[in-house]
TrEMBL record:
SUPFAM superfamilies: NAD(P)-binding Rossmann-fold domains. Residues 6-273 form the NAD-dependent epimerase/dehydratase domain. Keywords: NAD. It comes from Drancourtella massiliensis. This is GDP-mannose 4,6-dehydratase. The lineage of its organism: Bacteria, Bacillati, Bacillota, Clostridia, Eubacteriales. The keyword Hydrolase does not apply. PANTHER family: EPIMERASE-RELATED. The keyword NAD applies. It comes from the Bacteria.
Length: 357
C-alpha cells in the first residue's frame, strides 16, 4: 500500500479510527482520506477523542497525509466529489448505522446509511474507471456476524446459507454483500466483505454491552444479562480486527476469466472473529474484575446485587462463533488476543477517559 490513496468511511468510528492509526504507524507512506458524519448515535466526544489521536499521529508522520471530511456517505454528490478530487485506489467502507436493537426503533437510519450510502460508494467505485482511469483497485467493506441470524450450525462459516436475518441491521449487511457481488460481476470491481464478530476495546462504542455494563455498574445501576446469561459471544479485540483488515486491503481478489471466457467476479467474504465464544456470565465476571483492578469500581463492589438475568431481546441471537479458517488460509492470520487482556486495556482506558479528567 506504499503511497496509495486510501479512502476510509466511518473514519471517526471505532474500527475506522483504529485502522487509520495503524496505517499511519506503518513504515509505508500513505495518503488517507477519512469521512464521517459525526452523528450523535453515541457520545460524540469519543469520536472527537479518536480524531485527536489521529491528528497527533499524522503530525509525527510527515511522509503520510491525513485529510478528514465531515460528511455522510448518503450524500451522493459529496461522495462523487471526493472520488473526483482524490481518486482513491483503495476504499474501506466502515461507515454504517450499527446496532441490532436500534434498528428496531429507528429503521430509517439503517436504510439511509447502510443501503443508500453503500450504493453511493459502489457507484463511485464503478465510475472511477470512466475514461480509461485506473480506478479503485480494491473495495473492502464491513459486514457483520449478524448475517448468520439464528443459524444452528457452529462455528459460522462463510459457506453457510445466510438468507434468514433476524433484524433489519442484519438484512442491510447481507444486502451489502449481495450488492457488492453484483457490482463485482458487472464492472469487475475487486471487493471483499468482512464479517466482524463483536468488536471491543478502548474507546469503543458505548452501545456495546461491555461499555454499557461499565457505565451502569459505575453509576450503581443494575445490569441486565440477556437470555438468562446463556448467550455466547465471539469477542474480538479491535487490534485483531484492524490487523485483519490491513492484510485484506493489500490483497484484492484476482481478476480472472472463467471457462466461458467471461470475467469471474473478483469477490470474497471472510469472517474476522476470535473463534473462542465466551459465556456472557463469565465475560461479565472478568469485566468486573478488571474494572476493580483499574480502579473504576471499588474493591468491595457488590457485583451480585447489581445484575439481573432477563429473557432474550428481539433481534438477538444466542451464540456467535467464527470459523476463520479461510482467513488463516489466505492471509496467515488468526485473531488471538485473550479476553482478559482486551478488557484490561478497555478498563484502563475508561479510567483515563472518564475518571482522570
Amino acid at each position: 500500500m506504499n503511497r496509495q490513496v486510501i479512502l476510509i468511511t466511518g473514519a471517526a468510528g471505532f474500527i475506522g479510527s483504529n485502522l487509520v492509526l495503524e496505517l499511519l504507524r506503518s513504515d509505508d507512506p500513505v495518503h488517507i482520506i477519512g469521512i464521517d458524519n459525526m452523528n450523535d448515535y453515541y457520545d460524540v466526544s469519543i469520536k472527537e477523542y479518536r480524531l485527536e489521536k489521529i491528528k497527533s499521529m499524522s503530525e509525527s508522520k510527515p511522509d503520510s497525509t491525513w485529510t478528514f471530511i465531515k460528511g455522510s456517505i448518503s450524500d451522493r454528490d459529496q461522495i462523487n466529489a471526493i472520488f473526483d478530487e482524490y481518486k482513491p485506489s483503495i476504499v474501506v467502507n466502515l461507515a454504517a448505522q450499527a446496532g441490532v436493537r436500534y434498528s428496531i426503533t429507528n429503521p430509517d437510519a439503517y436504510i439511509e446509511s447502510n443501503m443508500i450510502g453503500f450504493y453511493n460508494i459502489l457507484e463511485a467505485c464503478r465510475h472511477s474507471y470512466d475514461n480509461g482511469q485506473p480506478g479503485v483497485e480494491h473495495l473492502v467493506y464491513a459486514s457483520s456476524s449478524s448475517v448468520y441470524g439464528s443459524n444452528k450450525k457452529v462455528p459460522y462459516s462463510t459457506e453457510d446459507k445466510v438468507d434468514n436475518p433476524v433484524s433489519l441491521y442484519a438484512a442491510t449487511k447481507k444486502s451489502n454483500e449481495l450488492m457488492a457481488h453484483a457490482y463485482s460481476k458487472l464492472y469487475n470491481i475487486p471487493s471483499t466483505g468482512l464479517r466482524f464478530f463483536t468488536v471491543y476495546g478502548p474507546a469503543g462504542r458505548p452501545d456495546m454491552a461491555y461499555f454499557g455494563f461499565t457505565n451502569k455498574l459505575r453509576e450503581g445501576k443494575t445490569i441486565e444479562i440477556f437470555n438468562y446469561g446463556n448467550c455466547k459471544r465471539d469477542f474480538t479485540y479491535v487490534d485483531d480486527i484492524v490487523e485483519g483488515v490491513k492484510r485484506v486491503m493489500a490483497a484484492p481478489p484476482e481478476k480472472r476469466k472463467g471457462e466461458d471466457g467471461l470475467p469471474v467476479p473478483p469477490y470474497a467474504v471472510y469472517n474476522i472473529g476470535n473463534s473462542n465464544p465466551e459465556n456472557l456470565l463469565e465475560f461479565v465476571d472478568i469485566l468486573q474484575q478488571e474494572l476493580i483492578r483499574a480502579g473504576v469500581l471499588p474493591e468491595d463492589y457488590d457485583f451480585e446485587a447489581h445484575k439481573k438475568l432477563v429473557p432474550m431481546q428481539p433481534g438477538d441471537v444466542p451464540v456467535t462463533y467464527a470459523d476463520t479458517s479461510a482467513l488463516e488460509r489466505d492471509f496467515g492470520f488468526k485473531p488471538s488476543t485473550p479476553l482478559r487482556e482486551g478488557l484490561r486495556k478497555f478498563a484502563e482506558w475508561y479510567r483515563e477517559f472518564y475518571m482522570n479528567k
